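Hey Z.,

So I finally got round to the S-adenosylmethionine thing we talked about over coffee. Here's the setup:
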Amino acid sequence: MSEEVLPPDATDAQESTPGSHATPGSLYVVATPLGNARDLTLRALDILRTVDVIAAEDTRVTLPLLRRHGIQTKAVSLHAHNEARRAASLVAALADNKSVAIVSDAGTPAISDPGARLVRAAHDAGHAVVPIPGPSAVSAAVSAAGLDAERFVFIGFLPPKPKARRELLESVATLRFALVIYEAPHRVRETVAELANLLGARTLFVARELTKVFETLTRMQLEDAPAWFDADSNRTRGEFVLVVDAPSPPSDKASALPVDVDRWLAELVRELPPARTARIVANVTGVARDQLYARAMALKHKSVD
Ligand code: SAM
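And the result:
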């Protein structure tokens, strides 16, 4: 069999990719480390060194990173509260043929971080927008989760208000996808309890302090998660990504359940999420919650299909 040979310019293009020097009039969206300072890519260093200005979520976080690498580029702030105003002046700089990089405190800008508004404004004004990919908590966590699911939904931070949180979770509970959630330390214990209530029997992957000294990566059943956090107060410290694997394929086997139990499930699941339905029916009938949950999921899917 003949070996596939790449045309010489295909590999050369990767070696001498134009990313090695910032192009005038371009906006670069640059990923920076989540914790480990060595996770800054070579291309990110090239761009941060050669752009005219860096728009940073917090210059007090970014300047030490730049100085560590001997980068002297001017930095200005771009955060949630000044993004509208700052975006206008940065787009004016792009129009003046200056090159601009945007960075957040950690990971990839515009993913649960400021940046999307500036990126949109740059597109609208016809400027090139160039991603410089690298660390992001969502990709790091999903890559290490060992998911059964082939697809995932990135939820990011849940809304702070209980009703909005519940509605969002109920809207994704029956999807056969994994769910990726960003969470803060003071809420993580409460959130896993809520996930267990609303999502039922699923596997949870906890990615805590990714790339940092106290990195903790662990898989468990969702219903065991509150006890896992309670077992050691250090476990609620730091930064978290929670990855809930997809629900098991729904069982169509109603025959294993008494007819009246199946009818209760069918009625309740029209009004309630499958996990809550299964819990109520399990409490009343004594039938295993997992079995009821799988059947409730099947009935719910049948009603949406
Ligand atoms: N833009 C960032 C990214 O690309 O991942 C995310 C920024 S968001 C404001 C911060 C959240 O990301 C944290 O609350 C946490 O959920 C997650 N995160 C960031 N760094 C992390 C880390 N080292 N370990 C675990 N989660 C992290």
